[in-house]
Structures are given as structure tokens and as C-alpha cells.
């Protein structure tokens, strides 16, 4: 791929040495450094890129590697480097607040160093053609697709490398993980724990460097951290919506609601708590990301919130928004009202066949039973086909015998 071109194809991931990934051999004269975003996906993508490019250093940290501060960070770290470097920027979208400065900053850096920009965010797409010196690679819009592209570049891959590739996509709530049947309870648990780790002071930097030194140690720590995330208590169930008993655990609102939804098998969860900064009551709701991936036509909590409270400010992502309340009593009433509206809208949007809730263990047993039944059906079909062939063979034999007798 030539500098400044956009690469949009490649759902199957290109092999090392072809297409967009050609020419990435690292020589002693040109050392590679990798810079990634500071969330779970950014850390996992930086780990994969560091192994794929045989990097001598890797960096990811808040707020240094945010889109808003990335250019200044790169200038501070590498502009005066004594030798020409390959600088790989991965999973950091173009700064939408000032895209011109972002692109120009990377272009200026590319005068002295080789700069490779790898991303999957849709917001980056309109600006990729602006790059001239920078080698920009856009591997679809899926976090999983980008991670697997990096994973496939690793010379000596391991099962742990693949686990981390999928883990990063789970951390990004990539629907492709669910569509491909890759989500497991352990991966969800690991993603929760990694979210805790990367939010600690210098957490992203420690996480990516520990992954490179001892991935098993960091994964074990993530499992432990996941257990520290509190779950909200269930107050009531309104159809596919779990209503939490308030107030929600401080600093853990959305996480506590998601944990409650997974524990109860609900599609949604609503609840209220006290906002840490404003100290005011706040109402929250989430849709379980895996349910949203399986049934994308289900209404999002943010959409329903705007219908219920058109004059109020709905804050945050539509999948996990919040609304400020005037009192704790109103917050409690709003959480229940939100739950009723979500349940009603979900019932109208979903087919009756998906309204039944089952524990994960029961789903697993049912899946095994279905596979066993399919195997029995296939075996019966094989036997029937074998008997059919035998009958045809005997029919031909009888016809041949009849023909010989007629000839005699």
C-alpha cells in the first residue's frame, strides 16, 4: 500500500508481506516503538503490535495517548530521537476537535521518522486521505478485525496472543465477537478486570508492559480485579429489565448495572445513584452489549430516555446513558419508569421467540443436546442413504438378471 492511500477492504485479514502490510521488516538500523490508546482495547492492540513489529518500546497511558494530547506526547518523546524510528500508532482515532492539527502533527513527525497509523474507528475515515508521508492503514471498523490482523503478523503466535486479541475486542464491546460466537464468561470477566487495571494511575502503561513480560500474571490480576467490581442488588424485575436497588455503588454505576444484568439474565438494567462530581442524584440505564449485538433492533436506553424526558439532558453513550434527577425520590421513580418504558419498547421490537431467559449453564446444556440430536439425525440420514444405495444396487442386479434370462 502506498503512503497516504486508504485501505478499506480485507475482512479476512491480509497475510504478512502482502497488501497493506507489506514492507514491515524491522532491521537493527530502524527500531520500532508502539503507541496505543489507554483503554482495554488500546492496551491489547499495543501488545499485539509490539509483538508483530518486534518493538523495542511500547507506550500507552492516560491522558498522554488520547487523541487530544497524542501529538504533543509524540513530539516530547520522539521528535529529538538520535536515530530514525518506526513509530506505530494503533487504536487512537483522529482528534475530531482539531483534525487538521492531528494529521499535520503526524505528517511533521514523518519527515524524520517512519510513522504508521493503524486504526478502526469510523470517525477516522474522512481524514485518511489527508495523510501523505504517514502510512495509514484502516482495517475495517471492527476492533476484532484489527486485532486479528495484528495477531496474524506475529511471527510465532501463541494461544495467549489470540486470547488477548479477542479480549481487546471484548473490552471495546465489538459486536463481531458475539456474531462469531467467541464471547465467554471468562473473557467478559477478564475485560471487566482489565477495565479496572487501566483506570488506575499509570495503569495502561503498566498493563501493556506487564503483558509483554508476563501475560499470565496480568490476566490473573485482571480476574482478581473483576471480582472487586460490586454488583447492584436487584430491587425488582420488569420484563427484560433488572431494576437495581439504589443507591448504586459509588464510581461503579454502569459497571454495577451491567454485572447485575449478566447475573440476572436481563437485557437491560436501570438504577440510580449519586454523581461523584456534582453530588446530585443521577439515574442510569444500560443495555447488555452482547444482547445489543445479537438483537441490534432493540431500542437503546438513550433513545427511550429522550422520549421520556425531552427537556432534560441525556448524558453519555446511548447504550449507557444517565439523566440528572432533582431528588433521590424522583431518581427512584425515574429508574422504575425507565424500566417500564424499556420493557414495553423491547417487547414490541423483539420476536416472541427471544423473550425467554435462561441461565448460561442451561443454554450450554441445551446447545449440547441440540448438537447430539443433530448428530443422531445425520446418522439416521446416513443409514437411510446407505439402505437406498443397497436397494438401487439390488434393483440393478435384478434388472441385469432379467435381461440375461430374456436373452437366453
Description of the structure:
With 408 residues, the chain is α/β, with parallel strands linked by helices. It has 14 helices and 11 strands. It has helices spanning 40-52, 70-78, 99-112, 143-153, 159-171, 175-179, 185-198, 203-213, 215-226, 253-264, 289-294, 301-308, 328-349, 360-407, and strands at residues 31-36, 57-59, 85-90, 114-119, 135-138, 233-238, 241-245, 268-274, 281-287, 314-315, 322-324. A 6-stranded mixed sheet has the order 6-7-8-9-11-10, sandwiched between helices. Strands 2-1-3-4-5 form a 5-stranded parallel sheet, with helices on both faces. It is globular. Mean pLDDT is 87; it is low at 1-19, 25-29 and 352-361.
Quick recap:
It is built from 14 helices and eleven strands.
Globally, the shape reads globular
Order of helices and strands: EHEHEHEEHHHHHHEEHEEHHEEHH
Whole-number count of domains? 3
**Rg of Cα set:** 27 Å
**Which band does the percent of strand residues land in?**
5-15%
**CATH fold category name of the largest domain:** inorganic pyrophosphatase (n-terminal core)
Q: Which percent bin holds the helix content? A: 40-55%
Task: Write down how many β-strands occur, each being a DSSP E stretch of 2 or more residues.
Answer: 11
CATH architecture designation of the largest domain: Alpha-Beta Complex
CATH secondary-structure class of the largest domain: Alpha Beta
On the 0 to 100 scale, the average pLDDT is 87
Derived from helix and strand composition plus strand pairing, the structural class reads alpha/beta
Helices, by number, come to: 14
What kind of sheet is the major sheet?
Answer: 6 strands, mixed
Name the strands of the widest sheet in spatial order: 6-7-8-9-11-10
Amino acid at each position: 500500500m502506498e503512503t497516504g492511500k486508504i485501505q478499506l477492504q480485507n475482512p479476512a485479514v491480509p497475510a504478512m508481506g502482502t497488501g497493506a502490510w507489506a514492507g514491515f521488516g524491522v532491521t537493527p538500523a530502524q527500531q520500532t516503538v508502539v503507541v496505543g490508546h489507554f483503554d482495554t482495547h488500546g492496551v491489547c492492540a499495543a501488545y499485539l503490535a509490539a509483538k508483530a513489529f518486534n518493538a523495542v518500546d511500547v507506550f500507552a497511558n492516560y491522558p498522554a495517548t488520547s487523541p487530544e494530547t497524542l501529538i504533543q506526547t509524540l513530539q516530547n518523546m520522539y521528535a529529538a530521537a538520535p536515530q530514525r524510528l518506526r513509530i506505530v500508532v494503533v487504536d487512537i482515532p483522529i482528534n475530531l476537535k482539531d483534525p487538521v492539527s492531528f494529521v499535520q502533527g503526524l505528517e511533521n513527525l514523518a519527515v524524520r521518522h517512519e510513522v504508521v497509523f493503524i486504526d478502526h474507528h469510523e470517525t477516522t475515515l474522512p481524514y485518511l486521505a489527508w495523510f501523505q508521508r504517514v502510512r495509514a492503514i484502516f482495517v475495517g471498523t471492527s476492533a476484532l478485525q484489527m486485532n486479528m490482523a495484528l495477531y496474524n503478523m506475529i511471527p510465532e503466535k501463541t494461544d495467549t496472543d489470540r486470547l488477548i486479541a479477542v479480549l481487546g475486542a471484548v473490552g471495546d464491546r465489538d459486536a463481531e465477537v458475539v456474531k462469531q460466537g467467541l464471547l465467554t464468561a471468562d473473557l467478559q470477566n477478564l475485560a471487566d478486570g482489565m477495565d479496572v487495571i487501566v483506570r488506575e494511575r499509570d495503569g495502561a502503561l503498566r498493563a501493556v508492559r506487564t503483558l509483554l513480560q508476563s501475560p499470565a500474571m496480568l490476566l490473573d490480576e485482571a480476574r482478581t480485579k473483576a471480582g472487586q467490581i460490586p454488583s447492584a442488588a436487584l430491587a425488582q424485575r420488569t420484563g427484560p429489565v433488572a431494576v437495581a436497588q439504589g443507591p448504586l455503588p459509588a464510581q461503579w454505576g454502569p459497571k454495577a448495572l451491567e454485572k447485575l444484568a449478566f447475573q440476572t439474565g436481563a437485557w437491560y438494567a436501570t438504577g440510580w445513584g449519586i454523581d461523584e462530581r456534582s453530588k446530585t442524584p443521577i439515574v442510569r440505564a444500560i443495555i447488555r452489549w452482547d444482547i445489543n449485538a445479537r438483537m441490534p433492533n432493540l431500542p437503546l436506553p438513550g433513545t427511550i430516555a429522550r422520549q421520556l424526558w425531552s427537556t432534560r439532558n441525556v448524558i453519555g453513550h446511548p447504550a449507557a446513558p444517565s439523566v440528572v434527577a432533582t431528588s433521590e425520590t424522583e431518581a427512584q421513580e425515574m429508574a422504575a419508569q425507565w424500566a417500564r418504558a424499556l420493557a414495553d419498547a423491547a417487547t414490541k421490537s423483539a420476536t416472541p421467540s427471544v423473550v425467554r431467559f435462561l441461565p448460561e449453564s442451561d443454554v450450554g446444556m441445551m446447545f449440547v443436546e441440540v448438537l447430539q440430536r443433530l448428530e443422531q439425525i445425520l446418522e439416521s440420514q446416513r443409514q437411510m442413504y446407505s439402505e437406498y444405495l443397497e436397494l438401487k444396487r439390488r434393483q440393478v442386479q435384478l434388472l441385469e438378471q432379467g435381461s440375461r434370462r430374456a436373452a437366453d
